[in-house]
Amino acid sequence: MPVSRLKDIPGIGVDRMGDLADAAADPELLRLENLDTDIRPPEAALAVTRRAVDDDAANSYLPFLGQWGLRRAAVAQVRRFSGVDYGGPEACVVTAGGLSGVLNSLLALLEPGERVLLAAPIYAGLINRVRLAGGVPVFVPTRPTPDGWRLDRDAVTALRGQGIRVVLAMSPAMPTGCCFDEEDWAALAGLCRAEDAWLLYDAAMARLLFDGRPYLHPAALPGMAERTITVDSVSKQFRMIGWRVGWVVGPASIMPDIGLVGIHNVVCQVGIAMAAAEAALTCADDGVAAAVAEWQARRDRILSELDGLPVIPPAGGWSLLLDCGPFGLTGAEASKRLFERGRVAATPMDGWGPGAERYLRFVFANEPVERLADLGARVRRSLS
């Protein structure tokens, strides 16, 4: 029997599907189950990584909170997108990936039993980190529409007076690709102000926006700079998954506590990767715009292939959801059929929030457009 902090924490399904796909060793199998990407990182980051292998300073535990150059660059990036100046590099703690920053922040913010709002469906890893930190997830829905996912703002407002300690928000969200607009962010910010709550903003996909959507940073909203904590990384936007570098930027009132948790959790970050992360944040061409254009083209191809099927279009990010309910299937059942009959690896959304078990996720970050050309036929053959 697991210890109590693990009893309500299931797996995320991606690892199981990835293992099945690896074992199949089938070049015809479409790998739509995980968040890898075939688009290269910035060339400047690759060059700095190669040099860092021979740099003795990169082979060090110190500084525990991250190299000063990267911390300075991360604070500057938040300033660039939000207009909020949190100060110098002391406003940043570098972490071993973005999700390490989320967990460290939750451990610094929550007393056991305090409530954390999430908009579902949402990444199971965020839900489960709330539970690991002793928090209680409280869900508000995002609703599927023909134009994409929409936050239920009335449900957010109804939580005023309900003891929300942290609003954990991701936009674009994984797995839905839901992007919060100005009214969505205003509703979430209003709840934070009414509850004296923190806004923990997972910005891992913040710039991966389709169809010309603007990037809206919640720290820019009235009264939110002092209660917004931004967590980000090089994994998604800069395509640097294996570097395992993320960061947390926020107000001086909380950053020492987040740093203290980090020192006693992972201790320090990947030394040979931090200078490369700084290069990605500061180089003239980070490749984000070109990568977004390619991912949007892949999204559009999948939407075209699945035209007429219950697919909800994402406004950003790397993935979209198929509603398996109209087929009389759960996401897990549809995933099995697709793998066996269609040679498509896709992850069911069990554990990704209330009602998510009806959905199947397709990730379009790692398969080029030409490989997606017969996806519609595969899906229809498998689920008919």
**Count of helical stretches:** 12
The SSE order reads: HEHHEHEHEEHEHEEEHHHEEHEEEH
Work out the count of structural domains.
2
- Report, as a whole number of angstroms, the end-to-end distance: 40 Å
Strand order of the largest sheet: 2-9-8-7-6-3-4-5
Query: How much of the residues is beta strand, in percent?
Result: 15-25%
List the helices and strands and how they pair.
Layout: H1 14-24, E1 30-31, H2 43-52, H3 68-82, E2 92-95, H4 98-109, E3 115-120, H5 124-132, E4 136-145, E5 148-151, H6 153-157, E6 164-170, H7 182-195, E7 198-202, E8 228-233, E9 246-249, H8 255-265, H9 271-282, H10 288-305, E10 311-312, E11 319-323, H11 331-342, E12 344-345, E13 347-348, E14 359-363, H12 375-383
Parallel strand pairs: 1-12, 3-4, 3-6, 6-7, 7-8
Antiparallel strand pairs: 2-9, 4-5, 8-9, 10-11, 11-14, 13-14
